[in-house]
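Researcher: Structure prediction, please.
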Amino acid sequence: MQAKTAQADKKAAADKKAAAEKKALADRKAAADKKAAADKKAAADKKAAAEKKALADRKAAADKKAAAEKKALADRKAAADKKAAADKKAAADKKAAAEKKALADRKAAADKKAAADKKAAAEKKALADRKAAADKKAAADKKAAADKKAAADKKAAAEKKALADRKAAADKKAAADKKAAADKKAAAEKKALADRKAAADKKAAADKKAAAEKKALADRKAAADKKAAEQKKAQPRKKVNSPTQINSQQKRDSRTELLTVSVSLNTGKIVSIASIGILASAILVSAMVFIAG
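Model: Predicted structure follows.
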């Protein structure tokens, strides 16, 4: 097996060497072909350059001869042209002198016309300037009048606004005063109503109390009368109580009843007087509020 592998490696190395030699041979052949082609091209270029130079030399000689012939012809033509030019110049100078005179005449006429046109233009410009100044003054006067009117309008508007503001402030103050007076009147009426109600309630309570005291007094008087009647009825049977004791007791009961009646009546009077005073003060406050409103 190892011998077989070694033989294969040997064969591979031989193949590799043969391939390298084949490639080297091909490279040398390619280099030789390239050099031969370059030499061939160089020879062809050299031959072409020589032929081109010979052709250029022949062309230069022909051009030189043609140039000499052309110069001789040009010299002859130049001499003829010079003579013709001199003749032409003489005729031209004569014609130019005539044209110059005609031009001077035309220029003099043109200058005269230009001076007339300039004068007319100056007069026209002066007229336009005067008109422009008049228009400018009219425009300034118009603007001043417009500014004056605008200022007057602005002042009138400001005065109108100030008047409206003052009126609005006065109306607002009047409305506020009216509302305050109405509120004050309503408060006074409410207070007067409350005072009248309190006085009525107090009077009703006093009347109720007086009625209750009056009823209690009547009940006590009835009880005292009943007791006195019973005592009077029992007097013949009882000898303990003397007529003097009975009379003293009756007198005490009568004084108590009179005192109770007097206190009840005085309380009713006081309550009535207080109610009348509260009612009168409420009426007075309402009248003052009404007068102030």
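Model: The longest helix spans residues 2-234.
Researcher: Thanks, that helps.
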